């Protein structure tokens, strides 16, 4: 998949099927839109996702979003920040100059509440009207629902802020995860507590509340169940950076330097400062028992 960040001009694409939106996280509603443009590839169109927005913290990092869209079959991801040109461009000019002129869209798929253009005056119905004029098809999809509530990035952000990993999975169709190279910590875990792996999450990624979670960690050749603390390690003196520290069940390997993805399954408790390392260790052992019980029940 080709990734292009729009700074000024859009690329010229010979024939495209386009879906537009924020695509902050690729939730279940987004996937339906992506499926629609993928279906147009058999007509010779390139499947193009046009992601509009300026979020400072995102549900998926740029790398995660690219990898997922590529796996789904997207050909081109256009990341378009809402700069002055885009913010002040009239909706009809956006259609004529970008969708028709630059992208040469033959098909456009959007959600029913999609808005675009200056003062958000562009609507799905306007797209349909201009589609008839310029010769591209428009499909308007109803919002995916979770009970009585529409699935949206706002909904997902709310649940993530509560640490509701089960609801996050239900809305996204995937677990919340953090990935990166295993870092060297202080070694306190190996010396005094339980042996752990340490990751530093991307600064662009929206994180759940600090605390202890039940997790599954994936390495190149192995998978481990465990418990993970997100936070600043207040009991052992505290850190200046947010860390993701995981105790892996039944693991004695040296994993430093290896790439790892940690999937979050369930929130157990908030991060807290204990009176001693011994008190912290006892609590971690209790957390580990709850984690092992969780996985036994899952089987």
UniProtKB/TrEMBL annotation:
CDD domains annotated for this entry?
Answer: FAD_synthetase_N
The entry sums up its family as follows: Belongs to the ribF family.
Tell me what organism the protein belongs to.
Blautia difficilis
Assigned keywords, A-Z: ATP-binding, FAD, Flavoprotein, FMN, Kinase, Multifunctional enzyme, Nucleotide-binding, Nucleotidyltransferase, Transferase
Q: Which reaction does it catalyse?
A: FMN + ATP + H(+) = FAD + diphosphate; riboflavin + ATP = FMN + ADP + H(+)
Spell out the InterPro entries in the cross-references: FAD_synthase, Riboflavin_kinase, Riboflavin_kinase_bac, Riboflavin_kinase_bac/euk, Riboflavin_kinase_dom_sf, Rossmann-like_a/b/a_fold
Pathway involvement of the protein, from the record: Cofactor biosynthesis; FMN biosynthesis; FMN from riboflavin (ATP route): step 1/1; Cofactor biosynthesis; FAD biosynthesis; FAD from FMN: step 1/1
> What are its E.C. numbers?
2.7.1.26, 2.7.7.2
Riboflavin kinase domain boundaries: 171-296
Q: What is this protein called?
A: Riboflavin biosynthesis protein
Output the SUPFAM superfamilies linked to this UniProt entry: Nucleotidylyl transferase (SSF52374), Riboflavin kinase-like (SSF82114)
- Molecular function GO terms recorded: FMN adenylyltransferase activity; riboflavin kinase activity
